[in-house]
């Protein structure tokens, strides 16, 4: 899909960037209220119990005096219940073949239905969707919600070979036996189809003016992600990104809003901006990206003449440079996200995860 280039440094770029960042900040500010609940859920789901400061003090004091020591014991009852529920749900929905099953609505023949199921099963298996499905269910039980993003991708495999061939003149090989080095680069199609990406609750950017279960009724929805310079260059070659020179100059600009490690107190995530051995200009590191889908009127955003609302996809690098802007063009007209919640409730902004629901019972057992 062709991009609508928004030149960096122009007033139009500034206006659109400000509008996108305002939506991002609004979503992050509201969802920050849930961070402590998510942190507690992560702690409760860990596979071991950390010693408290009080436990360490008692142990050090009583060991030297020869007194009997004791420690705090936690029963992982909530964790066990969550994993039992995950096993049951996974076996019910992921244990069938094909996982995505269809039925005819307009009198189609059975072979047509089976053809659709075979195509979708190919995308599930070859597109690697089973692992995102498993994590999706786990996130819904551990946190408030599980979120996945779906995206249509057309992979390209670039292969380069260096060979020695006889020297030729006008296409005719010489008898001298002289060899020349030849470099051949081939680009071939790889996987083509849907891919699923898990979105961590801390990285999801829904419109907080509607409940999570009704996020499709909101004005925008997005996610945070990290991308290397190679990913950006490859995306530019496919026509997905622009403003590469401006992005290259801003690759080292860190943004606290995308610091995944600060958002989670109990889980250590890879740090794309951490210490590295590569300090040369050949390594540009990682970009903290924001991908946001906004329902807008193109005329109001200087993106066209249409005065009817439509969805546009924007990609922002390090909160400074817009490197992607295009109409979404999906025929379903929805945000490319799917949410899974394990509690039935129709009006709250967010529901409860299983670890939060089981916490009182777990405390009693402890």
Overview of the molecule:
By secondary structure, this protein is an alpha+beta fold. The chain has one domain (11-42, 75-365). Helix content is 34%, strand content 24%. It is built from ten helices and ten strands. The chain has helices at 11-31, 35-44, 53-65, 77-94, 110-126, 130-142, 229-237, 244-249, 260-263, 354-365, and strands at 146-166, 168-169, 172-173, 179-199, 204-206, 220-228, 286-296, 310-317, 321-327, 337-340. The strands form three sheets. The chain has a five-stranded antiparallel beta sheet with strand order 5-6-7-8-9. Strands 4-1-10 form a three-stranded antiparallel beta sheet. A two-stranded antiparallel ribbon has the order 2-3. A hairpin with a 2-residue loop joins strand 2 (168-169) and strand 3 (172-173). The termini are far apart.
């Amino acid at each position: 899909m062709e991009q609508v280039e928004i030149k960096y440094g122009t007033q139009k770029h500034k206006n659109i960037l400000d509008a996108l960042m305002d939506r991002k900040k609004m979503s992050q500010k509201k969802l920050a209220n849930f961070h402590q609940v998510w942190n507690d859920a992560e702690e409760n789901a860990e596979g071991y119990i950390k010693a408290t400061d009080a436990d360490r003090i008692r142990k050090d004091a009583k060991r030297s005096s020869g007194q009997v020591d004791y420690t705090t014991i936690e029963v992982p009852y909530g964790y066990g219940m969550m994993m039992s529920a995950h096993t049951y749900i996974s076996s019910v929905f992921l244990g069938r073949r094909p996982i995505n099953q269809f039925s005819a609505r307009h009198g189609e023949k059975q072979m047509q239905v089976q053809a659709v199921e075979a195509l979708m099963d190919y995308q599930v298996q070859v597109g690697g969707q089973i692992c995102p499905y498993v994590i999706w269910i786990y996130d819904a039980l551990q946190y408030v919600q599980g979120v996945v993003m779906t995206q249509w991708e057309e992979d390209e495999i670039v292969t380069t070979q260096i060979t020695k061939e006889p020297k030729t003149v006008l296409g005719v090989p010489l008898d001298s036996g002289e060899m020349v080095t030849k470099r051949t680069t081939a680009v071939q199609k790889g996987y083509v189809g849907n891919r699923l990406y898990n979105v961590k609750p801390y990285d999801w950017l829904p419109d907080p003016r509607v409940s999570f279960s009704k996020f499709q009724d909101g004005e925008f929805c997005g996610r945070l992600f990290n991308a290397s310079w190679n990913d950006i260059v490859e995306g530019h070659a496919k026509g997905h990104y622009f403003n590469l020179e401006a992005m290259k100059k801003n690759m080292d600009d860190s943004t606290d809003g995308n610091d995944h490690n600060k958002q989670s107190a109990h889980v250590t995530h890879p740090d794309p901006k951490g210490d590295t051995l590569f300090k040369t200009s050949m390594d540009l590191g990682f970009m903290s990206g924001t991908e946001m889908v906004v329902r807008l009127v193109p005329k109001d955003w200087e993106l066209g003449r249409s005065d009817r609302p439509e969805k546009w996809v924007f990609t922002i690098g390090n909160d400074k440079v817009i490197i992607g802007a295009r109409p979404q063009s999906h025929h379903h007209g929805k945000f490319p996200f799917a949410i899974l919640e394990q509690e039935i409730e129709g009006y709250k902004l967010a529901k409860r995860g299983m670890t939060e629901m089981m916490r009182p019972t777990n405390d009693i057992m402890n």
